[in-house]
Amino acid sequence: MNFSLKIWRQDGSQGRFEDYEVSDVSADSSFLEMLDQLNDQLTESGGDPVAFDSDCREGVCGTCCLVINGRPHGGRGGTTCQLYMRHFADGETITIEPWRATAFPVVRDLVVDRSAFDRIIQSGGYITVHSGPKPEPNTMPIEPEVAEEALDAASCIGCGACVAACPNGAAMLFTAAKISHLGLLPQGQPERMERVRSMVEKMEDEGFGPCRNYGECEAACPKDISIKFIGRMNRDYLRATMVEPYDRRGKMKPQ
Ligand code: SF4
Ligand code: FES
Fold first, then answer.
1. All CATH 1.10.1060.10 domain ranges in the chain, comma separated
2. Distance (Å) from CA 132 to ligand 2 centroid
3. What pLDDT, in 10s, does the model give residues 149-194?
4. CB-based contact 199:178 (threshold 8 Å)
5. Taking 90 as the threshold, does the pLDDT of residue 141 lie above it?
6. How many whole angstroms from its chain centre is CA 160?
């Protein structure tokens, strides 16, 4: 298969699209393997290879952040590394861009800085763990429905497609998933109110935009994270800030 590529190149504050041709691509190549092929071609001809991020290449790590033909991850329900060239037409022109969001500045070409997500996690994405012997698991029974819901939220890989898809560059889906997967479980209760307050406030400090219920985040998410978690996060945030103020240890003050 042969493709024409329009790729965003950036080294510094200004960027531009550049055109490339790549030929003899196997239909079974992944999208990232096609870019590897292009980079081999560029290197052999003395050109500058295109910078892009990847790590696991199996849909787990969330680093392969590309907007393909205007859709984060190509819009086919998985990550960029799980996208195959057979999904494109032979001879097609494919446009490739980095995530576009104020809170994800471009580092180079298609690589963006997603460390704002790490700082949101650092602000509250943890639970209290006592040192000492491991407790017997059956002393803390968890209903299967609750465990399933927590696991659904925990499947967020932190890729940032939700932010890239949102017209406001909001990180509500990511933050809600991270808050919910801890807040649904008994182990996450001690810091539940403190967690939601500090993570939501950190999200706003990092420059992510507000949610306007467009739903583009859910549509772009490669892990099918539901926007119902945003509603859950908003309810907890209201409770933490208006209804049930808590002390520094996350303990509810008596009413
Ligand atoms: S909610 Fe979905 S799109 Fe957003 S970071 Fe998590 S996995 Fe990626
Ligand atoms: S490279 Fe890890 S999810 Fe794509």
1. 114-243
2. 36
3. 999 999 999 999 999 999 999 999 999 999 999 999 998 998 999 9
4. yes
5. no
6. 3
Nearest to 66 by CA among 43, 89, 35: 35
Mutate which of 35, 36, 56 for ligand 2? The one with the most ligand atoms within 8 Å of its CB, which is 56
Which ligand places an atom closest to the C-alpha of 83?
A: 2
Give the CA distances from residue 17 to residues 7, 8, 27, 58, 94, in Å, rounded to whole numbers and listed in that order: 5, 4, 25, 28, 12
**Fold designation for 114-243:** Fumarate Reductase Iron-sulfur Protein; Chain B, domain 2 (1.10.1060)
Any atom of ligand 1 within 6 Å of the Cβ of 110 = no
The pLDDT tens digits of the residues spanning 97-115 come to 999 999 999 999 999 999 9
